Amino acid sequence: MGNVTGYTDSVMGRWQFTPDTLNRLSSALNTAASSLSPQFASNIGCWSYDAFGNRTLEAMSTTPCANNPTPASWANYGTNNRFTTTSQAPGGAGYDAAGNVTYDGVNKYFYDTDGRICASQNIPVLGTTVMTGYLYDAEGRRIAKGTITNWGSCDPAVNGFQVMTEHDYILDLGGEQFTEMVMDANNSMGWQHTNVWAGGKLLATYDNDGLHFYFDDPLGTRRAQTDYAGVIEKTCASLPYGDGETCQPTPTEHLFTGKERDSESGNDYFGARYYASSMGRFLSPDWSAKITPVPYATMGDPQSLNLYAYVRNNPLFMVDTDGHGWWKDFGQGLADSTYRPIVSIAKNPKAAAVGLGYAVTHPGTSLPAMGNAIKNTVVAAAHGDGRAIGQIVGTGITAAATAGAVGGAVRGIGALSAAISGSEAGIGEATVTTTATYFHYGYLSDAEKFAGGLRAGSYATTEGGLTGAEAQSTLALPHPTVPDAVYPVTPEAGTPINGPSTVQPQFGQPGGGQELTFPQGTGPGSVGTPTPIPPQ
Prior knowledge:
19% of the residues lie in helices and 26% in strands. It is α+β, with helices and mostly antiparallel strands and 536 residues long. It is globular.
């Protein structure tokens, strides 16, 4: 595993890191402090864990780890990897029957029937209690929060959800917080800020003070913020597990690895679960929609069996994209580059052959696409993205497994199919533009398809957004006549070929593009006048 052994940046200074024998972060040494974070000068960070992957200690001081430094946080554990006592809860932590933390020594939590935190309670000042309620949409994504007056229910009508304090979140297509609205003094919902995202990464935020740009470390944790002109507004320092944060969650709440930090609890909202940076672990055990004994675990790696641990206690190398654990992302990437392409080719050999033929005969298109896919995957992997790392590892496994049996053939098909079909490379769902051409098989024989001709009156499908002449020039099997009609097509992902207006989905990607119809009697190999089926 590629453990990070050191890094330097202008905010955090220069650090050296040491993993233990199980690739967990063990120690850190500041060898050159930055003027922006002098509190870390000559500091030594120490972390220890039990045999089950539970973090038992974190210390940050000038005392060497071997000399028992005073811990900044500590924890003891009982059965099922649950807290018994901690530095925050020396009198004992609380859990419900499902294993969700209900009391961590600072905050209390109440959960809905889906295991999501619907309310939190803390005491910021002695004698005062602040309770916050959280609302989710039908897909389980958080869309609002506000003050509540009654504890013990997730129903806003029962817990006294205060509309006057409500924060509403407008989400983008990727589920990220796009705009936040807050109830203003006039009892109307007012705009607070809008975030700018690209490829799953937060780039900037608009608010009433203007435009703010963010500069993050390789894992997506905020390190600096500037105004529109590039003038630094603030710098942000934090420790590897996200604690010790020096920035407030403004103008937007996304700090540690780009996740929302709740000011009322100090926890980070990861989507599927909430993460407590103060203890370096999740508040709830990992879960999956498909019932399985140990969700997203790798049975050959006992450290992955801990359902509360954050990225296998290697926070300098891995990131958790959605709260379901780094190993889930890694497994998906592994599948992307191993069995999924093979299964897709087996199910659609004709379309795969046509696509491969196009890639070979159009290197000016396929090679740049392949290069972009590789570049995006490598960049994402360097940022700890589990899916990208899984894709790279899977590619190596596939190459090794097929080298003796089929030489380079399967490797070539796999690489080219990813380039021409739009591989899921990089962070989020970035895809390469589809350049392969697909055909409605009802009007063409195999001989015609591979001999280089379209029958007159036939249909073909190609990528979207092209004029008739441009579409004609991109066909893998050329036709001498410009199509007489072009229809946009956007079928559901997974739709099989069942009509002339269906664009074949390839290699796990959604179908889509445009349908072309060619005039009667103009194409090579014309054999009569078939009855065209109108595009659906």
